[in-house]
């Protein structure tokens, strides 16, 4: 399968959305819902949504692989956010009935300082060398995942910089009905974005690992193509999510030919997430590490060592993977 688009900014919904004054099922303490109407958005139509490739929207945290210290590195998502004074001005602007067309940011003064190694996400508009905040008042960006940084310990558990490899979950190359966990060279993932999933990410909707033995994996964006999707109509998509095995996913991301990414989330259609039995957990998974040369060099507590101990084993589903430690 060809490499699809990377996630460098928030994705718009395929439908025009509306706000309803009801408590959100997605975000605690949010007193409103954002729901899809039946109208396809102009952004989706302009991106030729009908010719786009639909893929599974995976529920995790976004990562990026690019060069740092002259080698391929995993980077974690870190959005720069406004300081309290600027945030108050921005909220007043959003709630003003007589607001002007545009809010003016002073990027150098309005935002909390970023780590020295922070970089803005690609595709972010820049004016006079400064990145322009998005419609939410954030500047999407990335920070490198250092080996001993406790803040990103779950990120660092899926990479080994000494051998320049990452733990990746994708379809088996010879069997689309079989998942495969393998050690992939970081150089093969350069300039790609991926989703980190697992025990300590977003409430662990896929049921991976345990508190005692946490398990995390990377999934390249666009890795799980959606087959037999119904027509792009609100009710047809709603029925698909509710009524078939393939619809037991968080949402859909359409990869358009111009590089644009368009999404729909179950919550846009008034549906629940997470759900008990996900489509990802309906497929068997095989471990294919092929790390004979490196086995003895791994820390005995690291995921690479644990997976090398169960190399070539097959499990009925992802949540059945248990390490015998």
TrEMBL record:
Catalytic reaction equation(s): ATP + (ribonucleotide)n-3'-hydroxyl + 5'-phospho-(ribonucleotide)m = (ribonucleotide)n+m + AMP + diphosphate
Its EC number(s): 6.5.1.3
Protein's GO biological process: hematopoietic progenitor cell differentiation; response to reactive oxygen species; RNA repair
Cofactor(s) this protein cannot do without: Mg(2+); Mn(2+)
Entry keywords, A to Z: ATP-binding, Ligase, Nucleotide-binding, RNA repair
GO molecular function, one term: RNA ligase (ATP) activity
Name the record gives this protein: RNA ligase 1
Coiled-coil zones: none
Functional summary from the UniProt entry: Functions as an RNA ligase, in vitro. The ligation reaction entails three nucleotidyl transfer steps. In the first step, the RNA ligase reacts with ATP in the absence of nucleic acid to form a covalent ligase-AMP intermediate and release pyrophosphate. In step 2, the ligase-AMP binds to the nucleic acid and transfers the adenylate to the 5'-PO4 terminus to form an adenylylated intermediate. In step 3, the RNA ligase directs the attack of the 3'-OH on the 5'-phosphoanhydride linkage, resulting in a repaired 3'-5' phosphodiester and release of AMP.
Species this chain originates from: Macaca nemestrina (Pig-tailed macaque)
Ribosomal protein in keyword set: no
InterPro entries membership: RLIG1
